[in-house]
Amino acid sequence: MAPWRWTIHETLEHLRRGEISAVEVTRAYLDRIEALDPFLHAYITVTPEEALAQAREADARWTAWRRDPSTSLPPLNGIPLAIKDVICVRGVRCTCGSRILENFVPPYDATAVARLREAGAVFLGKTNTDEFAMGSSTENSAFGPTRNPWNPERVPGGSSGGSAAAVAADLCAGALGTDTGGSVRQPAALCGVVGLKPTYGRVSRYGLVAYGSSLDQIGPITKDVRDAALLLQIIAGPDPRDATSWPAPVPDYTQALIPDLRGMRVGVPPEYFIPGMQPEVERAVREAIEVLAELGAEVIEVSLPHTRYALPTYYLIAPAEASANLARYDGVKYGLRIQGETIWDTYRLTRGNGFGPEVKRRIMLGTYALSAGYYDAYYLKAQKVRTLIRQDFERAFERVDVIVCPTSPTTAFRLGERTADPLQMYLADIFTITANLAGICGISVPCGFDGEGLPIGLQILGPALGEEKILRVAYAYEQATPWHHQRPPIDAALQGRAGA
C-alpha cells in the first residue's frame, strides 16, 4: 500500500473505512519527503513533530466518530498538506524564500491556513518559492531551486514551484500556492497537476505576505479536480480581516463536478495561440478543445484584443505594488537587521544584503514607475489598460461560459536557461497574467505531454465568481482523458542515480 499516491478524496475514504490511520498516512508522506526532497528541494521547512501531533488528534476524532457517527467530523480530517512559504502558519518560520525573513516566525495563522486547520488538515511543512513570489521558475529562492519531478534538470515553474513539485512527486496530498500572475497555474501545468486561481477576493489574503496586493490570490494545487474543489470549499469565503474579500456565500463546488458539458459555451481566443509557442503545446490544447466539443460544449471564437498589452501592463503594476509592500523590510521592525553607522546605512545594508537580484529589480522598476514625472506616463496608463483588459473579458463572458487556452507557451525549460534573460523569464507568464489583471478565476489541468515526456497544461478561465463553471469544464475534461493518472518517474530516476 502506497498512501502517498492517493488523492485527498481517496485518502478520506480509506480513513473513513478504518483501513489506515492518519498517523500512518502522515508517516508515509514524511518518509517520502525524507527520501526524495533532499534532491527535489520542494520544501524549505518540514515540520514532522507538528504533523504527527496533528495526525494523532485526527485519529482521536476518527475514533470518536466511529463510536458515535453523529459526532461532528472535520471535512479534511487527517489529510497531509503543504503550504507555500509566503503564507503564515502559526509557530512555523515564514521565509518567503528570502534571506531578509530567514528567521521570521509568525505568531498567527493566515485565514486560509486557519480554515484548513479547523477542517482537520495536517501540515507537513512550508514549500519553496521564488523570493517573495517573484518569479516563474522557483530559481529565485534564496534557499536554492526546486527541481521538476518529471525531469530534474528542468524547472517546476513558479513561483509556487515547491507546492506544485511536492504534489506531483507525492510529497503531500495537496498544497496551497499563491497566484499573482500565474504562480499557481503555470507551475501546475509544468508539473502535470491541477492548479486553481480563485476570483480575486474569493479567498482571504489575510496572513499572505503581500507582493502585488491587487493581484495576489491564494489557491489550491492538487492531484485532481475534485481535490481542488474540496480545498477551495474550505478556504473560500468572506473574512472581516480582509476588506477585499467577497461577501458572497460559498457554494458546494463538488456539485459542479459532472462528466458532460451539454449547454456549456466554450470560448477560444486566437490571441492566445501565438507565433513562437511550442508546437506540441498548441497541438495538445487544440486536441483538448476537440474533446470539450465531443463532451457537448459549443466552441465559439472570442476576441481579447488588449491581450497584447498585458505583459507590459503587469510588469508596471505588480512591481509598483511590490515597491510599496516591500518597503516594510527595513531592518527595524522584524526580519534581518544589519547595523550601520547611521539609520540610512542600516537600511542600505539590510535591504542590499537581504534581497536577491530579482526582488531588487522589481523594486527598482516599481519605484521608477511611481516616481514624480513618471506616474502618469507609466503607472496610471497601465491601470487604464488594465481596465480595457477586464472589459475584454466581460464582453467575452457575455457570449461564453468559459475561455480555454494554453496555460504556458512552453513545457518546463532547463534550470538556468532563462536566469540571465529576465524578459524571457517574464514571457513564461504571458497566458496567465491577464486573469490576475482582470480579477477573474482560472484553472490549469493536464492535457498531454511533449516529445520529451514533459506535461502540458490546459487553462480554463471563468468570470468573477465563476469557479463552478471552470470546475465543471475541468472535471469533465479530466474524466474523459487519461492525463491525471500519469505520475512522474522520479523514483526510478533517483534509483538510477543511486545505482550510478
From TrEMBL:
Gene Ontology CC terms, in alphabetical order: glutamyl-tRNA(Gln) amidotransferase complex
Active site: 84 (charge relay system), 159 (charge relay system), 183 (acyl-ester intermediate)
Span of domain Amidase: 24-471
Gene Ontology molecular function, alphabetical: ATP binding; glutaminyl-tRNA synthase (glutamine-hydrolyzing) activity; transferase activity
UniProt subunit comment: Heterotrimer of A, B and C subunits.
Protein species of origin: Thermoflexus hugenholtzii JAD2
A biological process term (GO) from this entry: translation
Catalytic activity annotation: L-glutamyl-tRNA(Gln) + L-glutamine + ATP + H2O = L-glutaminyl-tRNA(Gln) + L-glutamate + ADP + phosphate + H(+)
Protein name, UniProt field: Glutamyl-tRNA(Gln) amidotransferase subunit A
Enzyme class: ligase
Region ranges (Disordered): 136-162
EC number: 6.3.5.7
Keyword set, alphabetical order: ATP-binding, Ligase, Nucleotide-binding, Protein biosynthesis, Transferase
Function (record text): Allows the formation of correctly charged Gln-tRNA(Gln) through the transamidation of misacylated Glu-tRNA(Gln) in organisms which lack glutaminyl-tRNA synthetase. The reaction takes place in the presence of glutamine and ATP through an activated gamma-phospho-Glu-tRNA(Gln).
Family, as annotated: Belongs to the amidase family. GatA subfamily.
HAMAP family to which the protein is assigned, alphabetical: GatA
Record-linked InterPro entries: Amidase (IPR000120), Amidase_CS (IPR020556), Amidase_dom (IPR023631), AS_sf (IPR036928), GatA (IPR004412)
Pfam families assigned: Amidase (PF01425)
